[in-house]
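Two proteins, back to back. First:
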Amino acid sequence: MNQIKNIDDCYNPSHDETARQGYISLMRKFIMNDISKLMNLNYEREIKTDFYRIESRFPSSGEEVRRSIEKTDIYKFWSSLRYNAQEMVWESVRRGIEREAPNLISIYKDALEDKSNLATLELDSNLEMPDYVALRDVHLMPGCWQNEYAKDDLSQGAMYAHGGSVFRGSFMPSKKRSGVACSVSKWLSLRYPDFSPVNILETGCTIGNNLFPYLEVYPNATLNGVDLAGPCLRYAFSRAVERGVKAHFYQQNAEKMSFEDKSFDLIVSSFFFHELSVDSTKKVLKECYRLLAPGGILVNMELPPSSQVDPYYNFYLDWDNEHNNEPHYREFRSQDVYELLNGSGFDLNDCFNVTIPDVGGASAKYFNDVALGKAPPPKHGNYTSWCLFGAKK
């Protein structure tokens, strides 16, 4: 077999498509930064004051802020632009991915012929999709993560990969390697210097963006990823074969996984739990507790709980609840993560809920000081910091 091609390079946007994608990235930054600041200024100067004059107090929840601000012109302008920009993200890569669909499948089939067996893939065509995936296009992404349009389809994996690049393109804090997995793995190495996981599991792994970087800190570990979406898992598997890493991918529901008790030393997730109902969240966390070996660590990167931020920021974050096909967003954030973890079996004394800076956007000294509790954590912000919750078993 010829060396597996890099599946990320199996996408060649035209000149116009590239220009359009760059424009959309910059437009999203303008919407989320510049127009957002104007909306916040309008809230502080007028809406908040008007609310106080009527209620003799300021808004105490994101919902009260939303009801006060949603009729203003600045909010309607911002919200409309944000919604349309979200749709434009996916549309900007769709045609190019459709052109390359046969080549994506060809690369995947080559990967299946790899004889090293370092990477494996187990798909389940009979897996029942839960309602939170089956009934809506989450993030307004057409076809969501799991829809398939041909045998051995990878289109949704490619859509997630390249649409995601457009989505966050103008927000990355520096040219350095950065992101969730790089930041979390560095934090773990500082916070738990003697911790050296052998088996790592990511729930909701999609295409492996936030799984592969753990090998940079723990090069001897075996990676494992669970997801509902076959197209994303095929994409992740093809990546693993091309990179020659030990990685195993499974199409399973994280609420009930097939692994034996105490199978993993480290279990991670990124932007995963806010897509689940409260009931599903509790089931997944109990599964994580079951699967963690003694001394193992669970680390989930998520949005900050509503109790930890001010009413306006709650309103700002919870926009996705109504407008981005993420109906469990607000309900997840309203929960006490310590109660969730404790109810899943973890000792409260071993639980944590911290915010860390992005390792690529912060100085090494500041990152280390935050990890070791020597400096105050940063505020939550777009790609500049990450909110973590988890526990050591």
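And the second protein:
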Amino acid sequence: MVQGRNIYKAVSRAVVVCLAFAIIACTPQPEPTEPQVSVQLWSVKDEVKRDFEGTLTVLADMGFDGVEFAGDFGDYQQNPEGLKTFLAGLGLQVSGAHIPFEMLDDEHFAATVAFYQAIGCDTLIVPYDARAFDAQQVTNVVVDLNRLAAKLAPMGMQIGYHNHEKEFDSFEQTTFWDYIATHTDENVVLQQDVGWTTYAGKDPVEYVKRYPGRTLTTHYKVKLPDEVQGKQPLIGQDTIDWSSLIEANMTVGGTQWLVVEQEEYPNGLKPLEAVKISKQGLETYLEARK
């Protein structure tokens, strides 16, 4: 009788292993990508307000392929066609835009979509929502993301969500971020902010691999954990394993854009100076892959 039970257990384990391999084999794997590099304009928000065209011209001269908008369009607020022409003249694409859920409610949806379609933007990212790390409200964020993903898909557009550190707080034996990831449609972009991920004590590389094909855009930002000393919040002068992250983005994440974001300006650096240093740091890692 004992021998029979042991045989049953062995067979059961073999079946489970076979099923696991079958599931992995049948799961579509993202194609390798060669992401372009953009900059989140929040990094230079004051400069953008003072001189929109001049600031974007400087960023284009730094070699950025694109920009991610954060709600400021200079004198082009009512002129998306003119903005698209201006960007094209600088050789810049639109990698995405940060917008709140409110801009996609029933009242604003049509106008919002029309504007972003006109400037060539197909990825809309919600940058922050306090409900996303509220145990009583996170399900509503999931509902909103899934509803908007379905609504935007026929228009060739995607919705996404961007993490801060609070999304990595514990929730239902996992984290709020994992809950959002596993309960949203695969078409919902998980825009990881690697600075906040590391600040929360998590591994950004592991999180790219955990959700293949979902990290279509990634914020390359440094946010040093409080206990870290002797490092700078600049790409290449920090603690993040950028080489492994780039590899994961390119081979697993389905990543189309690496988005440089700079929110701290050490050693008296001006925002544009800090952005330039971080971009140069990123370029060093990208060049090393060639």
